[in-house]
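Hey all, quick one. A colleague (J.T.) asked me to put the zinc ion job into the tracker so the inputs and the structure tokens live in one place instead of scattered across chat threads. No bug as far as I know, just bookkeeping. Sequence used:
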Amino acid sequence: MVNYKELGLVNTKEMFAKAVAGGYAIPAFNFNNMEQLQAIIMAAAETKSPVILQVSKGARNYANQTLLRYMAEGAVEYAKELGWENPQIVLHLDHGDSFETCKSCVDMGFSSVMIDASSKPFEENIAITKQVVEYAHQYGVTVEAELGVLAGVEDEVAAEESHYTKPEEVIEFATRTGCDSLAISIGTSHGAYKFKPEQCTLDPQTGRLVPPPLAFDVLHEVEAKLPGFPIVLHGSSSVPQDEVDTINKYGGKLEAAVGIPEEQLREASKSAVCKINIDSDSRLAMTAAIRKTMAEHPAEFDPRKYLTPARESMKKLYIHKIVNVLGSDGKAL
Ligand SMILES: [Zn+2]
């Protein structure tokens, strides 16, 4: 049993309270490998932004949960080496699917866990979430829960269609479970194919697909029911079209990939939304840079030669999100 405090990590409690009051959101970036983690920490250290490192089920299968935990411990020391004296780094389990998974993460030093029982009936979701909260809170670990269903595919979380969160359920859910934050469904979606072309309209100027707007009415109703309660948005990549174009130019085949417009996420950041999850955008940035470098330097076979531009590209993306979309820069001085 290791407590996260021994690793120099922080939980989300104070971070979220400040973000809600200050009208900004904390970035939650998923990581699976060293280059991605380096890029996240470099971006957070450079902008002095609090940051949430997220580990999904897919990441645990790919990289091993124990290794990822030690990488996060290393990330705290790395941040200090980069000159960030007081790093505010959360290690968070993304989409925990059972009490046992959440418990094992709490026990190995995660500072925050998500229990996602949103596909279960309301009463069952409450019961499982409450069990996780009771365990995690003994160790100061914060708990994110989910109400409502997001569409799309993210690692092993998949749903055919979304169901918006029902605002009338949120008070009862938050009160009975004691969760610290709540992921809601207002039209964001997992993956790089968030919307079918028939759900979108066509921008005549750019020829690009424009997705349907987020359900801000649902968000505002939730905020009215639970004033100041931290709200989380999953599936909030914007799928930058220049990255998609680069991937396709160098042999990729991404058709009709559509994300959430950044203006809408910026607007959401100013509300009680205090955590925004971004994963696909970093995958796109990495893939685009690797494809381009490999195409331009076909004789190169040293992975460091194509992973260096990939890491640079991810770092640039993370800084852009922190500064221009979430507004969390300078909040962890
Ligand atoms: Zn998610």
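Adding what we noticed when we looked at it: The mean pLDDT is 94. Residues 57 and 155 are 7 Å apart (CA to CA).
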